[in-house]
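note to self — DONT lose this again. spent like an hour looking for the file last time. sequence + predicted structure for the chain T wanted, 343 res
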Amino acid sequence: MKKILALIMSAIMMLSLVACGSGDSSTDGDVKTYKVGVAIYEFNDNFMTLYREELENYFASKETDTVKYDVQIVDGKTDMAEQTNQIRNFITQGVDVIICNLVQTSSADTIIDEVAEAGIPLVLVNREPLAYDAEGNPIDEAYEGIIDNDKVCYVGADARQSGTYQGEIVLSLADNGDLNGDGKVSYIMAIGDPENIDAQYRTEYSIKALTDAGVKVEKLAEDICNWQQTEGEEFVSSALAAHGDKIEVVFCNNDGMALGAAAAIQKAGRTVGKDIYLLGVDALTECIEMIGNGEMTGTVLNDHIGQSHTAVDVAIKLLAGEEIGDYYWVDYVKVDKDYVDAQ
């Protein structure tokens, strides 16, 4: 009996050793897995949803037999304190590279300092970090002190271009946006996040394109809609009720708010292209379809594929110890009826 028990115990020990050996890292050969931490300002954002999904897919496409990427994506929920904690968790976990879509661009220097001190490469995306003066105002042409680390860079698009393109789409219309022929373009503006430089530039440069071309403008209303469709609809609905037919152009800092504006316009009995114009930014699929159907005047392609792919490519360069630049710019594209029809 003792011999039988001894044989059984011996067999169990052998099986245990085999089982342990089958999960040993040495069986993976020379495969290197990099940990990638990705912090997104908010998952509930149309554009950033496309961006993060493409980012994850592109990382997967870059995997080989010897290199893998363990990508962890977290939601900042539009809360800078939450995002800061998430970045600190990435640092504690010892990730190999961090990609960050900041909740607040004014916090860029703080995030850069903490990540740099940990020796982790950092790719800031989509929301441009700026230098700020003593009063907290962005210094438009000064980046010193923000991107001054050889392991830190920014990947994005120049929001001034997107605003300018919105204005140029209006200028390309037969009446230059002056539907009622009174000699000026009367508009309302749905603003994303006033702290976000993209919102600031799109608000400013869409109108600057008109005034630079000699077109007179009249701002009837503007409001902060936080990039959200529901808030865009509420604002535009209220503005239409207050100003009625005086509103000729509705500018929205993004397509999410433009979708809300379109719903408000329809409910008010107005018709895009006939008695009102509607502009957005992002070129979401539904908005491109609306432009083709005449339900929206135009948008600006914020190239989530080009930006996310560039972010991944730069992150991989950093992981390989290669030199990088400070800034990587991806151009916007004007999307109007002619553009859609040509596709």
